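So, could you explain this one?
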Amino acid sequence: MSRYFVIEKLTQIKADNTLDGKVLSDLWHGFCFREGKCTFEEGETGKIAIGNASFIPLSEDEEYTLCIKEDGIGIVGKDKNCLLRGFMMLLMCIEQASSEKNQIACGDIHGKFNVSRRMIHICVLPETTFDYFKRLVRLCGVLQYTHLIVEFWGMLKYDCMKELSWECGFEKGKVKDVFAEAKEMGMELIPMFNHLGHASQCRVMNGKHTVLDQNLSLSYLFTPDGWAWNIRLEETKKLLKAIRNELYELFGEGDYFHLGCDEAYIFSNGYISNEELRNYLGEITSLIAEEGRKPIVWADMLIGHNEADLTGARYYCAKVENSEAELIRSMLHKETIIADWQYNVKEGKINSSIMLHDKGFKTVVCPWYDPNNIRSCADTVIEKNMYGFMETTWNTLTNEMQSILIAARKCGLPHTAWSQYAKAKTEIAALIRKIADEGRIYEECGFTAHQMGERNLN
Protein backbone atom coordinates (compact mmCIF):
# COMPACT_ATOMS: atom_id res chain seq x y z
CA MET A 1 0.00 0.00 0.00
CA SER A 2 1.35 3.43 -0.93
CA ARG A 3 2.42 5.75 1.85
CA TYR A 4 2.24 9.54 1.77
CA PHE A 5 3.33 12.63 3.65
CA VAL A 6 0.16 14.69 4.20
CA ILE A 7 0.58 18.46 3.82
CA GLU A 8 -0.98 20.73 6.43
CA LYS A 9 -2.82 23.92 5.50
CA LEU A 10 0.15 25.82 6.95
CA THR A 11 3.52 24.12 6.62
CA GLN A 12 6.54 25.22 8.63
CA ILE A 13 9.74 24.79 6.66
CA LYS A 14 13.15 24.97 8.31
CA ALA A 15 15.70 26.00 5.73
CA ASP A 16 19.23 27.14 5.17
CA ASN A 17 19.13 30.83 6.11
CA THR A 18 20.49 31.82 2.70
CA LEU A 19 17.14 30.89 1.15
CA ASP A 20 14.84 33.86 0.87
CA GLY A 21 12.41 35.52 -1.49
CA LYS A 22 8.68 35.65 -1.89
CA VAL A 23 8.77 33.38 -4.97
CA LEU A 24 9.34 30.22 -2.90
CA SER A 25 6.20 30.88 -0.84
CA ASP A 26 4.23 31.75 -3.97
CA LEU A 27 5.28 28.52 -5.64
CA TRP A 28 4.40 26.45 -2.58
CA HIS A 29 0.93 28.01 -2.55
CA GLY A 30 0.45 27.29 -6.27
CA PHE A 31 1.72 23.73 -6.15
CA CYS A 32 -0.55 23.13 -3.14
CA PHE A 33 -3.45 24.03 -5.48
CA ARG A 34 -3.79 27.42 -3.78
CA GLU A 35 -4.97 25.76 -0.59
CA GLY A 36 -1.77 25.43 1.42
CA LYS A 37 0.69 28.06 2.60
CA CYS A 38 4.14 27.88 4.16
CA THR A 39 6.45 29.81 6.44
CA PHE A 40 10.25 29.65 6.46
CA GLU A 41 12.32 29.42 9.62
CA GLU A 42 16.07 29.27 9.99
CA GLY A 43 17.43 25.74 9.85
CA GLU A 44 20.66 23.90 9.13
CA THR A 45 23.05 25.06 6.44
CA GLY A 46 22.60 23.13 3.20
CA LYS A 47 19.34 21.51 4.32
CA ILE A 48 15.56 21.91 4.22
CA ALA A 49 13.42 20.16 6.83
CA ILE A 50 9.66 19.65 7.19
CA GLY A 51 8.33 17.78 10.22
CA ASN A 52 10.45 14.94 11.57
CA ALA A 53 12.98 15.09 8.75
CA SER A 54 15.55 12.47 7.82
CA PHE A 55 18.40 13.24 5.45
CA ILE A 56 20.19 11.21 2.79
CA PRO A 57 23.91 12.04 2.47
CA LEU A 58 24.99 13.25 -0.96
CA SER A 59 27.16 11.14 -3.19
CA GLU A 60 29.86 12.91 -5.20
CA ASP A 61 27.76 13.15 -8.38
CA GLU A 62 24.46 14.25 -6.81
CA GLU A 63 23.14 17.83 -6.68
CA TYR A 64 20.52 17.07 -4.04
CA THR A 65 18.65 14.29 -2.27
CA LEU A 66 15.08 14.10 -0.95
CA CYS A 67 13.91 11.77 1.78
CA ILE A 68 10.10 11.76 1.97
CA LYS A 69 8.53 9.84 4.87
CA GLU A 70 5.09 9.88 6.41
CA ASP A 71 6.23 12.07 9.30
CA GLY A 72 8.73 14.36 7.60
CA ILE A 73 10.73 15.50 4.59
CA GLY A 74 14.45 16.22 4.38
CA ILE A 75 16.35 17.83 1.50
CA VAL A 76 20.13 18.08 1.22
CA GLY A 77 21.84 20.25 -1.41
CA LYS A 78 25.44 20.42 -2.60
CA ASP A 79 25.23 24.21 -2.51
CA LYS A 80 22.54 26.88 -2.30
CA ASN A 81 21.40 26.54 -5.92
CA CYS A 82 21.30 22.75 -5.69
CA LEU A 83 19.26 23.00 -2.49
CA LEU A 84 16.81 25.27 -4.29
CA ARG A 85 16.54 22.74 -7.10
CA GLY A 86 15.78 20.08 -4.50
CA PHE A 87 12.92 22.29 -3.29
CA MET A 88 11.64 22.62 -6.87
CA MET A 89 11.67 18.83 -7.13
CA LEU A 90 9.60 18.60 -3.96
CA LEU A 91 7.03 21.01 -5.40
CA MET A 92 6.63 18.86 -8.49
CA CYS A 93 5.82 15.85 -6.31
CA ILE A 94 2.77 17.39 -4.60
CA GLU A 95 -0.58 15.78 -5.51
CA GLN A 96 -4.13 16.70 -4.53
CA ALA A 97 -5.76 13.64 -2.94
CA SER A 98 -9.11 15.28 -2.21
CA SER A 99 -10.65 18.69 -1.68
CA GLU A 100 -9.27 18.56 1.85
CA LYS A 101 -5.91 16.87 1.40
CA ASN A 102 -2.65 17.42 -0.47
CA GLN A 103 0.05 14.76 -0.26
CA ILE A 104 3.47 13.62 -1.44
CA ALA A 105 4.32 9.99 -2.13
CA CYS A 106 6.95 8.62 0.24
CA GLY A 107 10.31 7.61 -1.17
CA ASP A 108 13.84 8.79 -1.90
CA ILE A 109 14.76 11.04 -4.83
CA HIS A 110 18.34 11.54 -5.99
CA GLY A 111 19.14 14.63 -8.04
CA LYS A 112 21.80 12.95 -10.15
CA PHE A 113 21.99 14.77 -13.48
CA ASN A 114 23.76 13.64 -16.64
CA VAL A 115 24.65 17.24 -17.53
CA SER A 116 25.89 19.78 -14.99
CA ARG A 117 25.43 22.95 -17.12
CA ARG A 118 21.82 22.86 -18.29
CA MET A 119 21.20 26.09 -20.17
CA ILE A 120 18.02 27.31 -21.79
CA HIS A 121 17.77 30.16 -24.30
CA ILE A 122 14.46 32.03 -24.51
CA CYS A 123 13.51 34.83 -26.88
CA VAL A 124 11.18 37.58 -25.70
CA LEU A 125 9.23 38.75 -28.76
CA PRO A 126 6.53 41.45 -29.05
CA GLU A 127 3.92 38.67 -28.95
CA THR A 128 5.28 37.64 -25.50
CA THR A 129 3.12 39.16 -22.78
CA PHE A 130 4.79 40.08 -19.51
CA ASP A 131 2.63 37.52 -17.70
CA TYR A 132 3.81 34.81 -20.09
CA PHE A 133 7.45 35.90 -19.68
CA LYS A 134 7.17 35.67 -15.89
CA ARG A 135 5.57 32.21 -16.04
CA LEU A 136 8.20 31.01 -18.48
CA VAL A 137 11.08 32.08 -16.24
CA ARG A 138 9.48 30.36 -13.26
CA LEU A 139 8.93 27.23 -15.32
CA CYS A 140 12.62 27.07 -16.25
CA GLY A 141 13.49 27.26 -12.55
CA VAL A 142 11.03 24.51 -11.60
CA LEU A 143 12.52 22.30 -14.33
CA GLN A 144 15.93 22.89 -12.75
CA TYR A 145 17.85 24.52 -15.53
CA THR A 146 21.09 25.94 -14.17
CA HIS A 147 21.49 28.86 -16.59
CA LEU A 148 18.82 31.07 -18.18
CA ILE A 149 19.76 32.98 -21.35
CA VAL A 150 17.31 35.76 -22.19
CA GLU A 151 17.35 37.54 -25.55
CA PHE A 152 15.01 40.52 -25.92
CA TRP A 153 13.86 40.98 -29.52
CA GLY A 154 12.85 44.63 -29.35
CA MET A 155 11.20 44.04 -25.98
CA LEU A 156 13.58 45.80 -23.55
CA LYS A 157 13.61 49.57 -23.25
CA TYR A 158 17.25 50.72 -23.38
CA ASP A 159 18.56 54.08 -22.25
CA CYS A 160 21.21 54.30 -24.99
CA MET A 161 18.74 54.22 -27.92
CA LYS A 162 14.96 54.28 -27.69
CA GLU A 163 14.55 52.68 -31.14
CA LEU A 164 16.04 49.42 -29.85
CA SER A 165 12.61 48.71 -28.39
CA TRP A 166 9.10 48.68 -29.73
CA GLU A 167 6.58 50.77 -27.83
CA CYS A 168 5.33 47.57 -26.13
CA GLY A 169 8.79 46.78 -24.73
CA PHE A 170 9.26 45.99 -21.05
CA GLU A 171 10.54 48.52 -18.53
CA LYS A 172 13.77 47.47 -16.80
CA GLY A 173 12.24 47.67 -13.33
CA LYS A 174 9.63 45.01 -14.10
CA VAL A 175 12.24 42.78 -15.74
CA LYS A 176 14.49 43.09 -12.68
CA ASP A 177 11.71 41.71 -10.50
CA VAL A 178 11.42 38.61 -12.71
CA PHE A 179 15.19 38.18 -12.77
CA ALA A 180 15.29 38.36 -8.97
CA GLU A 181 12.86 35.43 -8.90
CA ALA A 182 15.05 33.47 -11.31
CA LYS A 183 18.02 33.84 -8.98
CA GLU A 184 15.88 32.89 -5.98
CA MET A 185 15.07 29.65 -7.81
CA GLY A 186 18.73 28.74 -8.31
CA MET A 187 19.43 29.90 -11.88
CA GLU A 188 22.32 31.99 -13.17
CA LEU A 189 21.23 34.62 -15.69
CA ILE A 190 23.08 35.08 -18.98
CA PRO A 191 22.47 38.27 -20.99
CA MET A 192 22.35 37.98 -24.77
CA PHE A 193 22.49 40.49 -27.58
CA ASN A 194 23.45 39.48 -31.12
CA HIS A 195 26.63 41.25 -32.30
CA LEU A 196 26.55 40.11 -35.95
CA GLY A 197 23.40 38.78 -37.66
CA HIS A 198 19.83 39.11 -36.35
CA ALA A 199 20.48 42.85 -35.96
CA SER A 200 16.85 43.58 -36.84
CA GLN A 201 15.78 41.88 -33.56
CA CYS A 202 13.01 40.32 -35.63
CA ARG A 203 12.54 37.10 -37.57
CA VAL A 204 13.85 37.46 -41.12
CA MET A 205 10.73 35.85 -42.61
CA ASN A 206 8.50 38.65 -41.32
CA GLY A 207 10.50 41.58 -42.74
CA LYS A 208 10.23 43.74 -39.63
CA HIS A 209 13.14 45.74 -38.15
CA THR A 210 12.95 47.09 -34.61
CA VAL A 211 15.23 50.08 -35.22
CA LEU A 212 14.77 50.95 -38.89
CA ASP A 213 10.99 50.62 -38.98
CA GLN A 214 10.97 53.37 -36.36
CA ASN A 215 13.88 55.49 -37.61
CA LEU A 216 15.18 54.81 -41.12
CA SER A 217 17.91 57.45 -40.75
CA LEU A 218 19.86 55.00 -38.53
CA SER A 219 20.46 52.66 -41.47
CA TYR A 220 24.21 53.42 -41.45
CA LEU A 221 24.54 51.28 -38.30
CA PHE A 222 23.59 48.18 -40.33
CA THR A 223 24.55 46.41 -43.53
CA PRO A 224 22.53 47.54 -46.57
CA ASP A 225 20.00 44.72 -46.08
CA GLY A 226 19.53 45.73 -42.42
CA TRP A 227 20.03 42.16 -41.20
CA ALA A 228 23.58 42.46 -39.80
CA TRP A 229 25.47 45.12 -37.88
CA ASN A 230 27.91 47.39 -39.73
CA ILE A 231 31.03 46.08 -37.99
CA ARG A 232 33.28 48.46 -39.92
CA LEU A 233 31.84 51.46 -38.09
CA GLU A 234 33.19 52.58 -34.69
CA GLU A 235 29.82 54.13 -33.83
CA THR A 236 28.24 50.67 -34.14
CA LYS A 237 30.81 49.19 -31.77
CA LYS A 238 30.23 52.00 -29.25
CA LEU A 239 26.48 51.34 -29.37
CA LEU A 240 27.00 47.59 -28.81
CA LYS A 241 29.23 48.36 -25.83
CA ALA A 242 26.57 50.66 -24.35
CA ILE A 243 23.99 47.89 -24.81
CA ARG A 244 26.25 45.37 -23.04
CA ASN A 245 26.76 47.73 -20.12
CA GLU A 246 23.01 48.13 -19.65
CA LEU A 247 22.52 44.36 -19.82
CA TYR A 248 25.29 43.74 -17.29
CA GLU A 249 23.54 46.06 -14.86
CA LEU A 250 20.11 44.55 -15.50
CA PHE A 251 21.13 40.88 -15.31
CA GLY A 252 23.56 41.27 -12.40
CA GLU A 253 26.65 39.23 -11.66
CA GLY A 254 27.38 36.22 -13.84
CA ASP A 255 30.06 34.35 -15.73
CA TYR A 256 28.83 34.63 -19.32
CA PHE A 257 27.61 36.88 -22.13
CA HIS A 258 26.02 35.40 -25.27
CA LEU A 259 27.13 37.34 -28.37
CA GLY A 260 25.14 35.31 -30.87
CA CYS A 261 27.22 36.14 -33.99
CA ASP A 262 25.19 33.84 -36.24
CA GLU A 263 23.44 33.93 -39.59
CA ALA A 264 25.22 36.95 -41.08
CA TYR A 265 24.10 36.00 -44.58
CA ILE A 266 25.53 39.03 -46.35
CA PHE A 267 28.97 38.35 -44.86
CA SER A 268 28.77 34.74 -45.99
CA ASN A 269 28.25 35.94 -49.55
CA GLY A 270 31.39 38.08 -49.64
CA TYR A 271 30.16 41.53 -48.51
CA ILE A 272 33.17 41.72 -46.19
CA SER A 273 36.42 39.79 -46.36
CA ASN A 274 37.10 36.71 -44.27
CA GLU A 275 39.93 38.66 -42.66
CA GLU A 276 37.51 41.37 -41.49
CA LEU A 277 35.15 38.74 -40.08
CA ARG A 278 37.79 36.86 -38.11
CA ASN A 279 39.37 40.09 -36.83
CA TYR A 280 35.98 41.29 -35.60
CA LEU A 281 35.20 37.99 -33.87
CA GLY A 282 38.61 38.07 -32.21
CA GLU A 283 38.12 41.68 -31.13
CA ILE A 284 34.63 41.26 -29.74
CA THR A 285 35.29 38.02 -27.83
CA SER A 286 38.41 39.61 -26.30
CA LEU A 287 36.37 42.66 -25.25
CA ILE A 288 33.83 40.44 -23.47
CA ALA A 289 36.64 38.65 -21.65
CA GLU A 290 38.10 42.02 -20.58
CA GLU A 291 34.66 42.93 -19.25
CA GLY A 292 34.84 39.88 -16.96
CA ARG A 293 32.63 37.44 -18.84
CA LYS A 294 33.13 34.29 -20.87
CA PRO A 295 31.85 34.95 -24.42
CA ILE A 296 29.38 32.49 -25.95
CA VAL A 297 29.04 32.43 -29.76
CA TRP A 298 26.93 30.33 -32.11
CA ALA A 299 28.93 27.89 -34.23
CA ASP A 300 27.46 28.41 -37.70
CA MET A 301 29.89 31.16 -38.80
CA LEU A 302 32.87 29.17 -37.50
CA ILE A 303 32.80 25.92 -39.50
CA GLY A 304 33.96 25.37 -43.05
CA HIS A 305 31.57 23.96 -45.63
CA ASN A 306 33.74 20.90 -46.16
CA GLU A 307 33.98 20.36 -42.42
CA ALA A 308 30.20 20.58 -42.32
CA ASP A 309 29.89 17.85 -44.93
CA LEU A 310 32.41 15.64 -43.17
CA THR A 311 30.75 16.00 -39.77
CA GLY A 312 27.12 15.58 -40.78
CA ALA A 313 26.14 19.20 -40.23
CA ARG A 314 23.11 20.31 -42.24
CA TYR A 315 23.18 24.10 -42.18
CA TYR A 316 26.00 26.64 -42.01
CA CYS A 317 26.35 30.26 -43.03
CA ALA A 318 30.10 30.84 -43.23
CA LYS A 319 30.76 29.06 -46.56
CA VAL A 320 34.54 29.10 -46.05
CA GLU A 321 37.22 26.54 -46.69
CA ASN A 322 38.42 24.37 -43.82
CA SER A 323 41.70 26.26 -43.50
CA GLU A 324 39.84 29.56 -43.26
CA ALA A 325 37.48 28.12 -40.64
CA GLU A 326 40.54 27.16 -38.60
CA LEU A 327 41.81 30.73 -38.87
CA ILE A 328 38.46 32.17 -37.75
CA ARG A 329 38.36 29.88 -34.72
CA SER A 330 41.98 30.65 -33.86
CA MET A 331 41.08 34.33 -33.44
CA LEU A 332 38.48 33.67 -30.73
CA HIS A 333 39.48 34.51 -27.19
CA LYS A 334 40.60 31.38 -25.34
CA GLU A 335 37.64 31.62 -22.93
CA THR A 336 35.10 31.55 -25.76
CA ILE A 337 32.38 28.90 -25.55
CA ILE A 338 30.99 27.66 -28.88
CA ALA A 339 27.27 26.86 -28.94
CA ASP A 340 26.56 24.46 -31.81
CA TRP A 341 22.94 24.39 -32.96
CA GLN A 342 22.17 21.34 -35.07
CA TYR A 343 18.42 21.05 -35.41
CA ASN A 344 18.25 18.54 -38.25
CA VAL A 345 20.34 15.77 -36.68
CA LYS A 346 17.80 13.36 -35.21
CA GLU A 347 19.76 10.11 -35.15
CA GLY A 348 23.22 9.37 -33.80
CA LYS A 349 25.61 11.94 -32.37
CA ILE A 350 26.20 15.59 -33.27
CA ASN A 351 29.46 15.19 -35.18
CA SER A 352 30.11 18.90 -35.65
CA SER A 353 30.03 19.36 -31.88
CA ILE A 354 32.36 16.39 -31.41
CA MET A 355 34.77 17.96 -33.91
CA LEU A 356 34.81 21.26 -31.99
CA HIS A 357 35.17 19.47 -28.66
CA ASP A 358 38.03 17.32 -29.94
CA LYS A 359 39.82 20.47 -31.14
CA GLY A 360 39.81 21.72 -27.56
CA PHE A 361 36.89 24.17 -27.59
CA LYS A 362 34.42 24.43 -24.73
CA THR A 363 31.38 23.22 -26.63
CA VAL A 364 27.69 23.51 -25.79
CA VAL A 365 25.29 21.42 -27.89
CA CYS A 366 21.97 23.05 -28.75
CA PRO A 367 18.75 21.28 -29.86
CA TRP A 368 15.37 22.84 -30.65
CA TYR A 369 11.92 21.31 -30.19
CA ASP A 370 12.13 17.89 -31.88
CA PRO A 371 12.38 15.10 -29.23
CA ASN A 372 14.76 13.05 -31.40
CA ASN A 373 17.01 16.05 -31.95
CA ILE A 374 16.99 16.72 -28.20
CA ARG A 375 17.96 13.11 -27.54
CA SER A 376 20.85 13.21 -30.04
CA CYS A 377 22.21 16.43 -28.55
CA ALA A 378 21.93 15.25 -24.94
CA ASP A 379 23.52 11.89 -25.76
CA THR A 380 26.43 13.69 -27.43
CA VAL A 381 27.06 15.93 -24.43
CA ILE A 382 26.87 13.01 -22.00
CA GLU A 383 29.07 10.61 -23.99
CA LYS A 384 31.83 13.17 -24.60
CA ASN A 385 31.46 14.98 -21.26
CA MET A 386 31.12 18.30 -23.07
CA TYR A 387 30.92 21.72 -21.49
CA GLY A 388 27.14 21.93 -21.53
CA PHE A 389 23.70 21.62 -23.10
CA MET A 390 21.49 24.49 -24.28
CA GLU A 391 17.83 24.05 -25.15
CA THR A 392 16.71 26.70 -27.66
CA THR A 393 13.11 27.80 -28.10
CA TRP A 394 12.90 30.68 -30.62
CA ASN A 395 9.32 31.25 -31.87
CA THR A 396 7.89 27.85 -30.90
CA LEU A 397 7.18 28.36 -27.21
CA THR A 398 3.48 28.74 -27.82
CA ASN A 399 2.98 25.32 -29.40
CA GLU A 400 6.08 23.29 -28.52
CA MET A 401 6.56 24.20 -24.86
CA GLN A 402 6.79 20.54 -23.88
CA SER A 403 10.28 20.55 -25.44
CA ILE A 404 11.52 22.40 -22.35
CA LEU A 405 10.42 19.49 -20.17
CA ILE A 406 11.69 16.83 -22.59
CA ALA A 407 15.12 18.48 -22.68
CA ALA A 408 15.29 18.74 -18.89
CA ARG A 409 14.45 15.05 -18.57
CA LYS A 410 17.15 14.08 -21.09
CA CYS A 411 19.63 15.91 -18.86
CA GLY A 412 18.51 13.88 -15.84
CA LEU A 413 15.53 15.67 -14.26
CA PRO A 414 13.92 13.01 -12.02
CA HIS A 415 10.35 11.85 -12.51
CA THR A 416 7.74 12.27 -9.80
CA ALA A 417 5.46 9.42 -8.71
CA TRP A 418 2.85 10.43 -11.30
CA SER A 419 4.76 12.12 -14.11
CA GLN A 420 6.16 8.92 -15.62
CA TYR A 421 2.60 8.05 -16.70
CA ALA A 422 1.78 11.46 -18.22
CA LYS A 423 2.39 12.85 -21.70
CA ALA A 424 4.89 15.70 -21.81
CA LYS A 425 2.28 18.17 -23.06
CA THR A 426 -0.22 17.41 -20.28
CA GLU A 427 2.49 17.46 -17.63
CA ILE A 428 3.86 20.82 -18.75
CA ALA A 429 0.32 22.26 -18.82
CA ALA A 430 -0.22 21.04 -15.25
CA LEU A 431 3.01 22.74 -14.15
CA ILE A 432 2.15 26.04 -15.82
CA ARG A 433 -1.22 26.43 -14.17
CA LYS A 434 0.36 25.87 -10.74
CA ILE A 435 3.06 28.45 -11.46
CA ALA A 436 0.70 31.10 -12.82
CA ASP A 437 -1.18 33.71 -10.85
CA GLU A 438 -4.88 33.23 -10.17
CA GLY A 439 -7.70 34.88 -12.07
CA ARG A 440 -6.13 35.06 -15.52
CA ILE A 441 -8.24 35.76 -18.57
CA TYR A 442 -8.82 33.11 -21.24
CA GLU A 443 -6.06 34.32 -23.60
CA GLU A 444 -3.43 34.07 -20.85
CA CYS A 445 -4.11 30.43 -19.97
CA GLY A 446 -2.18 27.47 -21.35
CA PHE A 447 0.34 27.80 -24.18
CA THR A 448 -1.54 29.82 -26.78
CA ALA A 449 -3.90 32.79 -26.80
CA HIS A 450 -6.54 30.91 -28.80
CA GLN A 451 -7.33 27.31 -29.70
CA MET A 452 -8.19 27.83 -33.39
CA GLY A 453 -5.68 30.39 -34.61
CA GLU A 454 -5.94 34.13 -34.19
CA ARG A 455 -9.48 35.35 -33.72
CA ASN A 456 -10.92 37.74 -36.32
CA LEU A 457 -11.52 40.91 -34.33
CA ASN A 458 -13.02 42.98 -37.16
